[in-house]
Design brief:
Blueprint lengths: L4 E7 L13 H7 L2 H7 L3 E7 L16 H21 L1 E6 L5 H14 L4 E6 L20 H5 L20 E6 L4 H7 L5 E4 H7 L2 H13 L3 E7 L21 H14 L2 E7 L10 H13 L13
Parallel strand pairs: 1-2, 1-3, 3-8, 4-5, 4-7, 5-6, 7-8
Helix pairs in contact: 3-4, 8-9, 9-10
Length: 306
């Protein structure tokens, strides 16, 4: 196994939706032993602490929740992401999914600097392809893929100079996509894998096809893992629970395949809301999945009583 420089970056973002609690996520991952799990695998681990948002002046908006705060997080996290990628494999401890507005932007900037294409694997019940104009909820955690692909109406956010190509994105685990997103996605070449396809063919087949494309292009791979990719019976600590998600075993298979591929260059762990957890169970599941992505095999994983 290739040992890596794993850089932990706390992203206590809680502005992307109205339900509070994700700001506690970074501490929960640390408490659940993420650094120790990665060190045990032989990786060098550096914890850079928590990012803070750039200065901002809160303003009320008729539709969008905490717009200025989320912009401030985006600029700060893009910088942290770009800096982390220069030094190793950054792992962002979230925080709601609006943090990926910044982490993916930073990865795009770094990929451009080193002249390699960036690919994004989005493991999520939702497609997060909204714009501030199309979202009904006004919650920006549903907009990151819309933003990085250059969709309109992100006024005030950092400019996307070179949008992420649609062919470089795969969303897996889909089971909650509203009509506006569905209509927009159907006009794209984004690889979309819903739970029915996973039920019918398994998750390995579409994931292999995507990873083969990354390999062929000598691409970098940013992985964004949302707690709600998993079924809420396995991972309850999320404010956007959707029944019928991936099993623990499917989650580990994805992570083990990512490790086998050697392609992952950055990782988001998002939407953990410890306020909704059961004795730290979801935080531990996410730590175990991250460890699988970095080389732990299932038979190596200790059995714990929660």
């Amino acid at each position: 196994m290739t040992h890596q420089a794993c850089i932990l970056i706390g992203a206590p973002v809680d502005s992307g939706k109205r339900r509070r609690g994700c700001l506690m996520g970074p501490d929960a991952y640390r408490t659940a032993g993420l650094a120790e799990a990665l060190s045990d695998l032989g990786h060098a681990v550096e914890d850079r602490g928590n990012v803070t948002p750039d200065p901002f002046a809160p303003k009320s908006h008729p539709k969008i929740h905490a717009r200025e705060e989320t912009i401030a997080w985006t600029t700060a996290l893009a910088e942290a992401s770009e800096a982390g990628l220069k030094d190793g494999l950054p792992i962002f401890l979230g925080g709601d999914h609006s943090l990926s507005l910044g982490t993916v932007l930073g990865a795009m900037r770094h990929a451009q600097t080193v002249n390699r294409p960036l690919f994004v694997l989005w493991l999520d019940a939702h497609s997060d392809f909204h714009t501030p104009e199309t979202t009904d909820s006004g919650n920006l955690h549903g907009t990151p893929l819309g933003y990085v692909t250059g969709r309109p109406d992100f006024d005030g956010f950092p400019d996307i100079q070179s949008p992420l190509p649609q062919d470089n994105i795969a969303i897996m685990g889909l089971r909650s996509v509203d009509s506006a997103e569905r209509a927009a996605l159907q006009d794209t070449t984004i690889q979309r894998v819903d739970m029915r396809e996973i039920d019918e063919t398994g998750i390995a087949k579409p994931l292999t096809a995507f990873l083969d494309r990354v390999t062929a292009a000598n691409g970098m791979l940013h992985v964004s893992l949302d707690v709600d990719f998993l079924d809420p019976s396995a991972a309850p600590a999320v404010g956007t629970t959707v029944p019928g998600g991936a099993t623990i075993r499917e989650g580990h298979l994805v992570m083990e395949m990512l490790h086998d591929s050697g392609l992952m260059t950055s990782l988001d762990l998002v939407e953990l809301n410890p306020y909704l957890d059961e004795r730290g169970r979801t935080a531990q599941v996410m730590v175990d999945l991250a460890a699988s992505a970095l080389g732990r095999r299932v038979f190596d994983r200790p059995t714990r009583a929660f």
